[in-house]
Amino acid sequence: YKAKERGNNFQFYSSSLNGISVRKMELENGLRKALEFNQLMLYYQPQCSLTTGEIVGMEALIRWDHPEHGFVPPSEFIPLAEETGLIVPIGKWVLREACRQRKNWSKAGIADFPIAVNVSVRQFEDDHFIEYIAAVLEEMDLDAGLLELEITESIMQNLQRSSYILHQLEGMGVLLAIDDFGTGYSSLSYLNRLPIQKIKIDKSFVQEVPFLASQEMLVKTIIDMGLNLNYIVIAEGIETEHQLEFLRQNECAVGQGYLFTKPLPADQIERYLERNKSGIRF
Ligand code: C2E
Ligand code: MG
Ligand code: MG
Ligand code: MG
């Protein structure tokens, strides 16, 4: 992977700059330009009911098409964007673009599944977060029930404020999901008091099925817990028929993963939806 290789070269020089990595500086500058020059894009990955095969959701995932490095993966630039605070304007762009796309799909008569947008803690902690969401929904004339926010367990670190924000979002009608469930430190007793409808089992657990019995048991336990506490449980990172079968047998409600499709740009997603009009067949 090209960007990584270059990254290593740049790391070599970092000592001469008092520990500031040139690669990082370059990416940071690049990221500012990316926003300005429309190099950021959203890809979309469907979420599929594991009982009916129907598409019940769509996650928006950011992509950066860098003029020299090609596609820089979010795992590389999102942490940097969080560190520098750039995640706030980037997050605003994502939110607006995702809502615009969802509205366009509504206009085109494409089924009314919500669009799921990833929100990092830094965005969530921004004083104008709620305001901005309300403004985008208003601008796009989008039903709040068509927007789902994926947050991580790390919001629990500031429980009082998070609880307040989440309840405001709930009041607006926005849907809420916990992403990467099981990898953070959430207290179940608090989680249960927050207005969250959905938990997403992290793909690191799903992908160990059937290779690690202990992880299999963990997935099973999360599904059971979710069912008992009335969450919609969604498994991410489904790659094999075997994993799909396991999840269906254990009554996991929804799934997402390469087995159905990789994330795709909007026009390709439209073709995917057209091909799978009557649902995915298992
Ligand atoms: P995430 O929200 O947990 O998203 C799931 C990741 O798993 C995505 O990686 C997706 O492409 C990938 N994935 C989906 N199905 C499979 C599968 O079957 N196998 C494997 N191996 N991977 C699968 P992606 O797009 O590289 O995004 C990585 C992370 O970057 C996301 O994890 C999310 O935390 C963050 N991210 C992506 N877009 C945004 C964004 O717009 N805003 C923020 N704040 N974070 C974002
Ligand atoms: Mg996510
Ligand atoms: Mg996830
Ligand atoms: Mg993740």
From the N-terminal CA to the C-terminal CA, the straight-line distance is 34 Å
Q: What small molecules does the structure contain?
A: ligand C2E, magnesium ion
How much of the sequence lies in strands comes to 15-25%
Strand order of the largest sheet: 1-2-4-5-6-7-8-9
Work out the helix count.
Answer: 12
* Helix-strand pattern: HHEEEHHEHHEHEHEHHEHEEH
Biggest sheet overview: 8 strands, mixed, barrel
Tally of DSSP β-strands: 10
Helicity, as a percent range: 40-55%
Give the structural class.
alpha/beta
Spans of at least 5 consecutive residues with low confidence:
1-16
Instruction: Give the overall pLDDT as a whole number.
Output: 91
Morphology call: globular
Domain EAL: 24-277
Organism: Neobacillus rhizophilus
Protein name: EAL domain-containing protein
Short description:
The protein has 282 residues and is of the alpha/beta class.
Produce the secondary structure layout.
Elements: H1 2-13, H2 22-36, E1 40-49, E2 55-66, E3 70-72, H3 74-84, H4 87-107, E4 115-118, H5 121-124, H6 129-140, E5 147-152, H7 159-172, E6 175-181, H8 188-191, E7 198-201, H9 203-206, H10 213-228, E8 232-235, H11 241-249, E9 254-255, E10 264-265, H12 266-275
Parallel strand pairs: 2-4, 4-5, 5-6, 6-7, 7-8, 8-9
Antiparallel strand pairs: 1-2, 1-9, 1-10, 2-3
Bound molecules: ligand C2E and magnesium ion (MG) (3 copies).
